[in-house]
């Protein structure tokens, strides 16, 4: 009984220290949670494009934000929208996602003759997910890794 | 509140889509479905058929592949997405320009109020919706640059959006460039040494060059048409060219004056900072009298007579009154903008509205209809700056009454949102009973006829139908029946000719490519009501004399009948 209690205390301490770690590294902010949540959603949603026995409606509902919001959102957040308001981010996310479709399809073959590709959705979903991963890496996890590297460096330095 | 405006916009679209079981347009949406269909089936963008404006078709094809549903459904439901984003883009742009959420929200509501079937199409796919999204987003990074004087990091996106706009809709590009060049000149005057201003000017001039030379020759053809129109009208009304020249000269003087005033201008942090002025309201009241005079003149003009002559009571209530209200409010807004004319935002809006009003005047007196440049299409773009200035005007009305900002916005919001949904839903897409043009309308009966044709008639047949059936049938057609030809003649043209002439034409069309083809005529009740077609004798075989005259015996056989749509089969046989 005592052992279990001790183990629980250890787990609790570890969780608390993990939360502290997250807080210290700005990983518990609303933005970070949203972005990481979006990444988790994207990972689940992309599998829906490959499941053929799912009904079309469910597939559309699940994958729609991944294709029509996520790419634009990731680009918006990655490029220049640090101090912009939510309205602008929302609008730009939709618009850039919408712009990405003809641009991607047009430049994929780089010619006026297209080969209609039923995999367009999957390809675009992969691009969306890659952009989102890049966003989470650059804006959140990347800063933590860089911070950790900085701390290791400062510890290992003779002064 | 923003969410509610968007929700209302969305609801209007959903309501209008559910209201009509089919895609009830006869023209452009079907062309886009057709081009998207060709794109999917042939893998080619049909440049010859629809020019370089293929972005919307790629999106349609993409949505079809994503959803797996028919292109018809995709075209039908896509305005829910595109229309809502278009409204959102307008609001973002307004917020960026005026730095006021309240004005942005009122603008969104106003645009919902005067929702037009073109730009803010509520249940049909029009490339204008996509064009408007790209237009706003290619312009607003520059607006942000002007307001914050930051280096233009966002401008790269502006170029991407402009590129897409070039590939989306030619009329939107033309109108975009119409106010892009004056703005670039204003920028050059304002920030002489700024590299971005120079690049902006190069950008706009370059886009002109691209537009005229490579992408399309619409501009040159438009100019040619204007010149020919002027020369033609000169005979009837000799003073018209002088009027047009005077109008252009006055506009040039106004623009030059505006740009000179722009020098050393200030930046307005937010439009909410402007204090209301009672004198402006007095001036506005006096100006309304002048406006009433001008409106009566506009009604009396050729385009005005054409437009107002077709207006019925429903249109008057749901379509005209909100527009007149917004016109009047926008005038109040412009007066306020003049008071703060030394700020760039005011110059931007005033120049924008003035350019549009001048172009509106030119189009009103010089109708270029039939070429896609008619006044109705143009007006839908004009509502955009007008709604912004109208929102400013209404905003200051409330400010003058010492209502708090929240209360003012709440009052406008509640009143407008309550009226927006029925007005937007009704005026955005009217039924023929409400005064819509029947020629641009397909109903369940038409669909039944088209479906019957697709299922029953020989795949090498020829169908003579009103031209509104052409696009729809070609898009709905089963690939196996793709040899059916629709002769999309204006059947109404036949009202005034004799049945002998019609028979001659039919006989000619029965025989081509060295073979005889089955021939059908799709006739609606309107034509039967005229009673001119075949002199009421639809089933009558031709007489011997007529046979001699036309070489063949021709009579008509009714093969399909649905309420007042009839499909007649023209059969060839010999008299014995």
Count of strand segments of chain B: 7
What is the overall shape of chain A?
extended
- Arithmetic mean of pLDDT of chain B: 68
Low confidence ranges of chain B: 213-217, 233-240, 529-541
Strand order of the largest sheet of chain B: 2-1-5-7-6
Characterize the quaternary organization of these chains: heterodimer
* Helix-residue proportion of chain A: over 70%
Task: Give the overall average pLDDT of chain A.
Answer: 77
| Domains of chain A (count) | 1
Extract low-pLDDT stretches of chain A. none
Could you tell me the radius of gyration of chain A in angstroms? Answer: 21 Å
Q: Give the domain tally of chain B.
A: 2
Q: State the secondary-structure class of chain B.
A: alpha/beta
Largest interface: A-B, 32 and 41 residues
Descriptive report:
Chain A is mainly alpha-helical and 159 residues long. Chain A contains six helices and no strands. The N and C termini of chain A lie far apart (47 Å). Chain B is of the alpha/beta class and 576 residues long. Chain B folds into two domains: 437 residues, no CATH class; 132 residues, no CATH class. Chain B is 67% helix and 6% strand. Chain B has 23 helices and seven strands. In chain B, helix 1 packs parallel to helix 6. Chain B starts with a helix and ends with a strand. The relative contact order of chain B is 0.10.
